[in-house]
Amino acid sequence: MHIFYGKASLIDYLKSIKTVQSTIGFVPTMGALHQGHLALMQKSLLENENTVVSIFVNPTQFNNPEDLAKYPRTLEEDVKKLTALNPNIILYAPSVEDIYDGKPLSQSFDFDGLENQMEGKFRPGHFNGVGTIVKRLFEIVEPTNAYFGEKDFQQLQIVKKMVVKNHLQVNVIGCPIYRESNNLAMSSRNERLSTEERDEAAIIYKTLTAAKEKFAANSTAIISEWVQKLFNKNTRFTLEYFVIADEATLLPSTRKNKNKKYRAFIAVLVNNIRLIDTISLN
């Protein structure tokens, strides 16, 4: 398996294998790989001649130092999973120095307001960090196609916006959410949950599916109030937000329009661990 720790050697290698017809698929990750990540890679392997995976815990997208410090780092295990999936995967596992040249600072981006909703409200500067690292990785890898999971749907829309605004030649592809046996959305953060917390986190998806059932006959305000009351009774999980939003603009919706697509977004805290999820409503 080809593993690169520096961008210069990766760029040289990619130039050596590139042809006029060949395509590069790219899956950026922060490691602690799970089946959801591997599904993105499988799609890339099917659709491209070459697949690059990056593993990099990006400091500029963490507004909580404790979350950054505790984020799981399992490079050795990740390499085993990648090798088992396909030894032809090209892995880029850079240092902060290699990515940021000694200055781990975010650029400022204008995402046309997408950055001000949901995650943006609760994680100041988060999406500038996301935009910064994804733009740098795209410039290094120069992928034809890049694959992102829909669990981070707001991030997916932000990356698409960043690509358009910066005139980058990459096709951004959203892929379905992979779920655990109790329908908890797969996430590297799940590794920090206790067995009991992981089991009880099934409430997140149950809440989303119930909201979807209620959506046709109820207003967004009624559904949001129901969700808030549900979590007010729960002693283990704290609701950070529940929002029903226009899928294109991510603006919270007060009135439903039959010509628009809507999505419910949720973020909860358990033992200071943030879990997010989303579901299409119509």
Automatic annotation (TrEMBL):
> What is the protein name for this chain?
Pantothenate synthetase
Question: Of which family is this protein a member?
Answer: Belongs to the pantothenate synthetase family.
Give the matching SUPFAM superfamilies.
Answer: Nucleotidylyl transferase (SSF52374)
**InterPro entries, sorted:** Cyt_trans-like, Pantoate_ligase, Pantoate_ligase_C, Rossmann-like_a/b/a_fold
Q: Which organism is it from?
A: Flavobacterium ranwuense
* Residues at the active site: H37
Compartmental location: Cytoplasm
Q: What else is known?
A: The reaction proceeds by a bi uni uni bi ping pong mechanism.
- GO MF term set: pantoate-beta-alanine ligase activity
